[in-house]
Design a protein that fits this description.
Strand order of the largest sheet: 7-6-5-4-3-2-1-8-9
Helix content: 25-40%
Distance between the termini: 29 Å
CATH architecture: Alpha-Beta Barrel
Largest sheet: 9 strands, mixed
Number of strands: 9
CATH topology: TIM Barrel
Bound molecules: iron/sulfur cluster
Number of domains: 1
């Protein structure tokens, strides 16, 4: 079971699809509360994910939390980052020095949303972010850290995903995840600007799945409604079980939090009556409201037995 903790709701990027401020807007946990959470779930969870906002903004405190999590017995630690601070040689050297013995148990997932600065910097609304993220990723690969990538699928990068994948492999990433945006926070404000239509992502998803079969490099797809895939995934597969095996911490104040599987998303009426609703990301009701005809033609619910 994975424990997922947002370490902060602050970030040095300003992505057009960001859900962090909305999801964790009620508060930000202080350092002692985060330590308590690690203690509380050490028996139930064997993995911990540190995210945000941007977790590297905690700098030395992040390193301390990783060391604490390992000392408490968490087998694997995943840090999801925009990676910009890893472009600093002094931070990377400190990170490497302090976590050298834990390297095997740490994976660092870089959020990269384009094949170049034009697309990535536009989506992050931060000039120079692509350059720093790529330098950061390279710096960690050189130090032998396990590095992965995660990209949000948007209108701007939809036709660039295969190109991005090639770049990630060349950079030394060990696996890549492509995620359809969650319709919360700024993804709603900027819906028309960034959210691709499901009918447009369907052929791209098909290409990625074909590639996944052909090459050894791990490719994952997340938040993709099953009806867009060629066949419904096996219910025991990781694609279906991911959300079931996770405890997400949602801060309420700096000391209080709730633990949940995830924020429930109101799904399309069509998905609600489908047998796979519990396992499938489905289609958000807000999306259905905007593209009613498209959703009706794309979805093919399986009757509940
Ligand atoms: S990198 Fe972008 S999506 Fe991630 S927390 Fe920062 S602003 Fe939000
Ligand atoms: S209809 Fe069923 S399988 Fe299709 S997207 Fe909705 S929940 Fe998933």
């Amino acid at each position: 079971m994975k424990l997922s903790i947002p370490l902060t709701n602050k970030c040095n990027n300003n992505c057009l699809f960001c859900v962090a401020k909305c999801r964790y807007n009620k508060g930000e946990l202080d350092f002692s509360a985060i330590k308590q959470i690690l203690h509380k779930y050490k028996k139930k969870c064997n993995f911990v994910g540190f995210g945000g906002g941007e977790p590297t903004l905690l700098k030395m405190k992040l390193i301390k939390l990783v060391k604490l999590a390992r000392a408490l017995g968490y087998e694997g630690i995943e840090i999801t980052t925009n990676g910009r601070l890893f472009s600093s040689k002094s931070f990377v050297n400190e990170f490497d020095k302090k976590l050298n013995k834990e390297k095997e148990n740490i994976s660092i997932t870089f959020s990269i949303h384009g094949p170049n600065s034009i697309i990535h910097d536009y989506l992050t609304q931060t000039n120079g972010s692509f350059h720093q993220t790529i330098i950061g990723l390279r710096n960690l690969v050189v130090k032998d850290f396990k590095v992965y990538t995660r990209s949000v699928i948007t209108k701007q990068n939809l036709n660039e995903l295969i190109k991005m994948l090639k770049i990630f492999i060349e950079l030394g990433s060990l696996g890549s995840t492509f995620v359809y945006p969650t319709l919360l926070g700024k993804a709603i404000t900027n819906f028309n600007l960034v959210i691709p239509k499901l009918s447009k992502i369907k052929p791209v998803v098909k290409k990625l799945l074909l590639l996944k079969k052909r090459i050894k490099y791990p490719i994952s797809l997340k938040n993709i409604p099953f009806c867009l895939l060629k066949k419904i995934p096996n219910l025991t597969s990781s694609y279906c079980n991911n959300s079931q095996k996770k405890i997400s911490i949602l801060p309420i104040t700096s000391k209080k939090f709730i633990a949940t599987k995830d924020i429930p998303i109101k799904k399309s009426k069509i998905c609600v009556r489908c047998k796979f609703e519990r396992f499938c990301p489905g289609v958000d009701a807000k999306y259905e409201k905007k593209y009613k005809n498209e959703v009706a033609s794309l979805l093919n619910p399986v009757a509940q037995s």
